[in-house]
């Protein structure tokens, strides 16, 4: 039989052999396309992704077996390298401590500029013509009437300057409630204060308010405590200073003006008599000003998931205000800083478009792909 097979193969027309090879290539390409489509479907399934993530989390910190297979002399060298890495982490921690000292030094140089900025924003100081000179990109020179119009508009914007900054930043606008806005119109400035030399690393956000009808405080504060040293139990995880906790401040609300609380009425029915009564309760209310009452971190460091999520978001907001909002407030007011922040997302979007293009190309090259099968009938489109 083998001889007959060999004979048949030898007598086969070369053109037929090419056809066989083409069929095999088509089958391989079809298999690859189906496998790719199956992978895409799996990666879009949230249950599969959650299971995969859980599996990966379980592998974190588990030995791979590779180290155990190494010769003893190599293991000794690896241990020596790890010790060097720990020493590098401690040096890096000192580096960030010196960076903090530099921040303190230059904060004092920035402050006069920030103070003048605050005076201009509050209309306490009117800048000179020289200070107002700015390169205009292909814009016509402002006429006298146009200047007067802009001055009137500036008076209106003056009342909502901080609101504009907050609303321009998604991270902050998500915190704002409608009942917060009348209060934030009285916010005049936000300052950053660094801990003194020799003190534990920290920074404080100061929110300066003009006298208002909501609370008697002129300054609300939020202090973030930081640490710049490797964790002895996991020194290789060190990646710069981390926020260890934060403390807010008490707000001296005017009676009836506390927007962090709300009053609700509930009807209760007596089990025995069947009578109904209305009970008034005071419960927490969503507000930006909850920012000044963060959850306390227990000494043991263990917290429930909800508190951990609140603190994680709080740390992100505090860091963003310190690093971005305070130094570049005018650019967030004009929206220019927002455009810079969005550039990264545009690039990701372009990459996504490219991937979609590749998928479409794969479908067109798939011999079994029929667009009519994927197209929904008119009835389905109408229902959507």
Automatic annotation (TrEMBL):
GO process annotations (BP)? nucleosome assembly
Provide this UniProt record's keywords sorted from A to Z: Nucleus
- The answer to whether keyword Nucleus applies is yes
Q: Where is the composition biased (Basic and acidic residues)?
A: 1-10, 369-384
Superkingdom, natural source: Eukaryota
Q: Show the segment(s) annotated as Disordered.
A: 1-37, 336-384
What cellular component GO annotations does this protein have?
nucleus
Q: What is its main location?
A: nucleus
Q: Where in the cell is it found?
A: Nucleus
Chain intervals with Acidic residues compositional bias: 11-30, 337-368
Q: What's the family?
A: Belongs to the nucleosome assembly protein (NAP) family.
The protein's name: Nucleosome assembly protein 1-like 1 isoform X1
Gene name?
LOC109080925
